Amino acid sequence: MHITQLNRECLLHIFSFLDKNSRKNLAKTCHKLLQVFQDPLLWSLLNFHSPVELKKDNFLLGPALKYLSICWYSERVKVCNIEDWRKNSLQKDFCKRHENTVSDFLLDVCNRCPNLLSLTLSGCGHVTDDCILQLLKNCPNLKSLKLENCVRITDHTLEAVTLYGRLLRTLHVDFCRNVTQAGLERVREKCPSVMLKADRSANMIPDSKPGKKLMLEKASRKLVQL
């Protein structure tokens, strides 16, 4: 029996075991398998491990998406989580190249995936409070939000959770250095049903403002002169 002789349910089951690239390659072989590839039921879960993957055409975004994970840990991507004032020109150029990659992708998710239940972002140094705010507004069924080492996330995200995370049950803000203890306490007070986890966040040193950095440099130079 040829694979194309199987019914749609069997083909969907087979496709479910394949990664995104394998699904795309199989879909190129015939029109029937392309239709299976384009079936929204196949795309309820998506995992990404590098910024390049977000720009490929080997997946579909749609209302069937329930679980989304964008996690990368490579040394090159870690550069984006360094404070801007500590980056050299080469590092800044690298970050600039994919500064809006995740943000633009999440905007598509807001527009196309209203039934999203779980979002995990790890190492996404350019994701902002506004991205998360829009997601919470456009994906009202979101139950789990896990943010790890997302350095631009601040208490504004925590405030958005209290306002729009009506169904949220799990919130992680681990290694998010610009989140404060006051913001966490506000979530605990207003959303007692949310399981909150914040490893190495409120106790970390937040990014220094340019003015503060300049003052520190001047003070350091004075100490050297003394």
TrEMBL record:
Q: Which Pfam families match?
A: F-box-like
F-box domain ranges (all copies): 9-46
Give the domain of life: Eukaryota
SUPFAM superfamilies to which the protein is assigned, alphabetical: F-box domain, RNI-like
Matching InterPro entries, A to Z? F-box-like_dom_sf, F-box_dom, F-box_LRR-repeat, Leu-rich_rpt_Cys-con_subtyp, LRR_dom_sf
**One GO term describing the cellular component:** cytoplasm
The alphabetical list of record keywords is: Ubl conjugation pathway
Q: Could you tell me what this protein is called?
A: FXL22 protein
Tell me the organism: Grantiella picta
Gene name? Fbxl22
